[in-house]
Amino acid sequence: MKTVLLLTSIFLNSYALLAQKDTLDSKKIIKLDDVVVSAQIEPQSIKKSIKNVQVISEKQIKSLGATNLGDVLNQYVNITVMPDGDSGRSTVSLFGLDASYFKVLVDNVPLVNEGGVGNNTDLSQINLDDIERIEIIEGAMGVTHGANAISGILNIITKRHADNKWNLTYSLQEESVGKEYNLTTRGRHIQNFKASHNLNDHWMFSIGTTRNKFNGFLGNYNGKYVLYNDQNRGYRFLPRNYLQTNAVINYKKEHFNTFYKFELMNQDISFYDRSIKLGYNDQWGRYKFGNDRRYFYKRQFHHLNINGSGWLNYNFSLSYQEQTRDDEYFRYIISRRLETNNTTERVEAMKVGYSKGELSKSFYDRKLALSIGYEATKNKGFAVVNAAQNRTKEVNESIDNYDGFLVSEYHFTPNFSMGLGGRYSFQSLFENQYSFSIGARYLLPENLEWRTSVGRSYRTPDFYELFSNIIFEGHYFLGNENLIPESSLSFDTSLKKITLFCDDLMMKNQLSLSHNRIKDRITNALIGYEGSTPKYQNINISKYNYINLASTNAISLDENLEANIGASFTWISQIINNNVHKTDDRYLLNMGINAGLTYTLPKWGTSVSGYYKWAGKSQLWAATTNGYIVSEVDPYGWLDASIKQPFLGKKLELTLGARNLLDITDVKRTLTTEGHNTSSSVLLGYGRTFFLKLTYNLDINY
């Protein structure tokens, strides 16, 4: 009850702050440095944007001491990061919708994974050391970003400039994993190097590499050398080794810019069999072994971009990406610490050719802005899937689309503008799809900003939902090549207030309300029996609605103090139908709070940061043998803190910090059936961790 009162207080205070007058002249010009590019006809300040764009700066990322994108997004009020200890993957959930509905882009190009492009992105595979900022837009983004941008988009803007003739940076980070750490076989060890060079006034190039070695988290397990068959062999979080290399060359002259970016990523994950088997041969006699395996992920990313301005503004991107997964199977002889019978096969691959182009121009003294564009995506997927009689088969399929879109903005007055857009998509496997959006922005007196939009988007089934089969004794799960795309209709509106107390003290308050209705949602449903084995298949049968009410509030003083607090209520209604049982359409409540504080001591340059996220008791449907019931996940809090100190004129930076100070690992999930409570756990982390990061920056001018 106290938590609900706190959340309500945050909202009421937001209303009061939105209503208050500035202590300074309301006509005073407010300097907003953030220029955004996501879903904009041309780069512009956040204040001029019709879309409500959230920006995460490089400074915020550094203050977190984050090792992957999940560490950053975990502090975002509507986002939940979902780690998987068994696969090593970490994905994002927004408004209760999984990563299939949220699109991740790098410099406006959707990022490939082994199952598709743009969605279900593994956050652990994204390097943070090359990021300039992150732009997030919630809600339907189908017009500008095509399929699967239903709950929102995340656009990673990478660095493409050097401040000096030469910029050299090397960083070393050591981190515990829970209570586990040593210099070699425990904890996390990260090294990063980057060199940027301005050849002249027009040409710049950079190269960089990052290695992130995560030695796994044992938790209640005992590692790979266990000789007793107590089901405790292995790790709670799997060990993995990440290596990424990138190179950028950029040319800029007056109103013309072009760049080429190359990235190569390798990640291997080790899996250890829980069960210990007995073997025998003439050489060793009796021995114990585990059927272990490794997953090898490789990604290559090529992106060529040409953009410029003149009579027409233009922006063209051409990209080729490829991600593969190879599995190595072997028998590990535990007592001899020896691998035998090693075999490797490619189990998944996705090759993506992608191109996007836009032409834009302003008319009538810049009152009207038009942008016309295309997007072409050619996905060639491969997977080895299970088939009947314990056999496997190879699937090679292409999922292509060729889209055209038109976006317009009309500025009726300097304070009032509207946007209208539409997209039509020619699909190779599905019926052709369309999206539309209409939005408005109105700058009211007293620095009050109002934005609203309505839009339709769609999600196309991914490679797994279409073609994957899991068939073995007692289990029969089938993909479905006849699936149709899901569609959504969304509405959102927001009020934003900027208050200037003096030249150096500014406060921002925002209230937002959004609603989304999704039809033809894909669900795994019972379609019959194979003997006594039930057969399940993906079909379009369910619906999903959500309503989100959120408040964000931030205050800044000079450049030394930044503080924020936000709260969110999300009501989720979904009709899940598996052909046997069906849920009702009641709304289930999820709520949360986030807060952050960064203060820099001007005299020493010491920066102290703290970030807190509280997730309230959440409700969700759970499938049981007797039908769907509402389960509850206990509330939890997540606290990160760090202190950063520069030395030698900021050439050397030392950061000391801790993540998950409240020591969260699992959160209890309770189901009540026929008056009896049963509980399980939801895995969220591996406990309290500490890290030390040392960064050396060398700037050379000659």
SSE layout:
Blueprint: H1 2-19, E1 35-36, E2 44-45, E3 53-57, H2 58-64, H3 69-73, E4 79-83, E5 90-94, E6 102-106, E7 109-110, E8 112-113, E9 116-117, E10 131-138, H4 142-145, E11 152-158, E12 166-175, E13 188-198, E14 203-214, E15 240-253, E16 256-271, E17 277-281, E18 285-308, E19 313-333, E20 338-363, E21 368-387, E22 391-413, E23 416-427, E24 433-444, E25 448-459, H5 463-467, E26 469-472, E27 475-478, E28 486-500, E29 505-530, E30 533-557, E31 561-575, E32 588-601, E33 606-615, E34 618-624, E35 627-633, E36 636-647, E37 652-659, E38 666-673, E39 676-683, E40 689-700
Parallel strand pairs: 6-11, 27-30
Antiparallel strand pairs: 1-2, 3-10, 4-5, 6-7, 8-9, 10-11, 12-13, 12-40, 13-14, 14-15, 15-16, 16-18, 17-18, 18-19, 19-20, 20-21, 21-22, 22-23, 23-24, 24-25, 25-28, 26-27, 28-29, 29-30, 30-31, 31-32, 32-33, 33-36, 34-35, 35-38, 36-37, 37-40, 38-39
